[in-house]
Specification:
By secondary structure, this protein is an alpha+beta fold. The chain folds into 3 domains: 217 residues, Rossmann fold, CATH 3.40.50.1460; 82 residues, Immunoglobulins (Immunoglobulin-like); 145 residues, Beta Barrel (Porin), CATH 2.40.160.20. The chain contains 7 helices and 24 strands. It has an 8-stranded antiparallel barrel with strand order 17-18-19-20-21-22-23-24. Helix 2 runs parallel beside helix 6, helix 3 runs parallel beside helix 5 and helix 6 runs antiparallel to helix 7. The protein is elongated, with a radius of gyration of 34 Å. 34% of the residues are buried.
Length: 525
């Protein structure tokens, strides 16, 4: 008898142990494994140093560890260290298809030909063609993470600072748009594509400081984290910096703790009646939900991307009202029958509104100018005079080169228009270690505003063909050619002194030129 009792006791103990083990395993399986790689590059040897990326990386690594991530932090890394860290992250994510990946980078980043590159701290990149071999390709990194096959990858790039290289063309600001985004990924730029982000004046960059605050908020779904961060950065910068979020993840995920939603007990009041149904309420944006009707009159809070399941609710008509934090309200009327399952989805998403423009004060009318008398001493101002010119100007480019000699010649087919023929010779580079030489023959059609054959403001459009040759100390000569189109504006006074500005483009990048010089003007036939 005692032996049978002992056997039963042992059997019960083993049964309870196995059940608890299974439940523990299931609960552990429901919690995704989370791995993060955080890189902060600030101590550049050949470029301008950045004060905040290391702080950004340290603070981001700390908050991610608090959220349950296994974090690999890499500071002031060279290209080999960055490559190896990405491979480690990929290998960790490949272990489980349910794992979450998080990649964060703060430092210099540039675009070239629609591709984005992250710059190692010791990078020596004398020309644009060296980016592929001496910088980290963002697209290559995204492809590696995609090969891991995990459920979610979040990539955050606080790298949209202005292009730091002397050879950079003036149009290559910020980062380019994502060209091939992997599935199940969320990619976030600190600012819009092609724009410049603030490095910040405090401990952290502007974008990272706002992201850290929202990551610390418990119970936020991943989409809500970046929605709030974007709104906060926009408000803090007075809409001068707008983060960009590229989303290919359509599920629901919580990087940190999940929200705890417990419906009031009164929502189960239908348990006393057999005429009950089910009601499920889903929302995208956080707010306060109120349900009235039959024997229910209750209010409760719902987080972003939250759900409120009511398993038993008496048949009848109910009024459901969702009130959001920005004052917006959505109201639904729902009829629930016996054994009926009803789903209510509230899909309101707040969008930051642009600031209202202040009306400009009316301009006071300018007094009419008295016409200058035409005398025999000023024959060049005669309406019957067609003026040609020849001369030279000196100028510089906002990109490279910084010293340009321009030889000018003009042919005036009518009193107030002229064809400008010229040759730009670039003789100095923006980088003192790089020799530069370029030629750009051009032709431009211009007209005077106001009409004045002797001088005044003028505008024109033209085209040219640019040939440029670079001589780098470590790689030798590199040459390239571009077909250009331009818009020019300038001022001629004293019938010879010329100041002009030219905006040129090869339809991929832009160049800016300012010149000053003297044109000898003579009467044509």
């Amino acid at each position: 008898m005692i032996k049978q009792y002992i056997k039963k006791a042992v059997f019960c103990f083993l049964f309870i142990f196995i059940i608890n083990f299974i439940l523990f395993a299931q609960s552990d399986t429901n919690t995704p494994q989370k791995f993060a790689l955080v890189i902060g590059n600030g101590a550049y040897t050949n470029l301008s140093r950045l004060s905040n990326p290391v702080n950004d990386a340290n603070d981001m690594a700390a908050i991610l560890r608090e959220m349950g991530f296994t974090v690999d932090r890499v500071l002031n890394a060279n290209l080999n260290q960055m490559d190896n860290a990405i491979i480690r992250l990929k290998n960790r994510l490949s272990v489980s298809s349910d794992s979450y990946g998080f990649f964060f980078y703060a430092g210099h980043g540039v675009q070239s030909g629609g591709e984005n590159y992250l710059i190692p701290v010791d990078a020596n990149i004398p020309g644009e063609n060296f980016l592929r071999s001496r910088a980290l390709s963002v697209q290559a990194m995204l492809d590696e993470l995609n090969d891991a096959g995990n459920i979610l990858n979040v990539v955050v790039l606080d790298a949209c600072r202005d292009n730091p290289f002397g050879w950079a063309r003036s149009g290559s600001r910020g980062l380019a748009m994502v060209s091939r985004q992997p599935a199940d990924s969320i990619i976030v730029y600190a600012t819009s594509a092609g724009e410049q982000a603030s490095d910040g004046i405090g401990r952290n960059g502007l974008f990272t400081s706002q992201l850290l605050q929202n990551l610390r908020t418990p119970g936020l779904e991943v989409h809500e984290v970046f929605r709030r961060t974007g709104a906060d950065v926009s408000e803090a910068s007075n809409r001068r910096q707008i983060p960009a979020v590229y989303n290919q993840f359509f599920g629901i995920a919580y990087l940190g703790s999940r929200p705890v939603t417990r419906p009031p007990v009164v929502f189960e009041s239908g348990a006393a009646s057999i005429a009950t149904g089910k009601l499920l309420i889903n929302t995208i944006t956080a707010g306060t939900i109120s349900i009235t009707g039959a024997d229910i009159n209750e209010i409760t809070e719902l987080p972003a991307w939250g759900s409120l399941p009511i398993e038993r609710i008496n048949s009848g008509t109910y009024q459901v009202v969702m009130r959001y934090n920005d004052g917006r309200t959505e109201e639904r009327r729902v009829e629930i029958g016996r054994l009926q399952e009803v789903v209510l989805d509230f899909s309101y998403r707040p969008v930051p509104l642009p600031e209202p423009r202040q009306p400009r004060p009316p301009r006071e009318p300018k007094p009419p100018k008295e016409p200058k008398p035409v005398t025999e001493k000023q024959p060049v101002n005669s309406a019957d005079t067609r003026l040609n010119s020849i001369g030279m100007t000196l100028g510089s480019s906002f990109s490279a080169p910084w010293l340009i000699v321009t030889l000018h010649g003009s042919i005036a087919p009518s009193n107030y228009t002229f064809f400008d023929l010229g040759l730009d010779i670039g003789t100095r580079s923006g980088d003192l270690q790089t020799d530069h030489f370029s030629l750009c023959p051009f032709i431009r059609y211009s007209l005077f505003l106001p009409f004045n054959a002797g001088g005044g403001w003028y505008v024109g459009i033209g085209t040219g063909f640019l040939y440029a040759k670079y001589n780098y100390p470590d790689v030798g000569e590199i040459s390239d050619t571009f077909l250009m189109a331009d818009i020019s504006s300038g001022f001629v006074f004293k019938n010879g002194i010329n100041v002009s500005y030219t905006f040129r483009t090869d339809f991929e990048y832009v160049y800016n030129k300012v010149t000053f010089g003297y044109l000898y003007r003579f009467q044509g036939k």
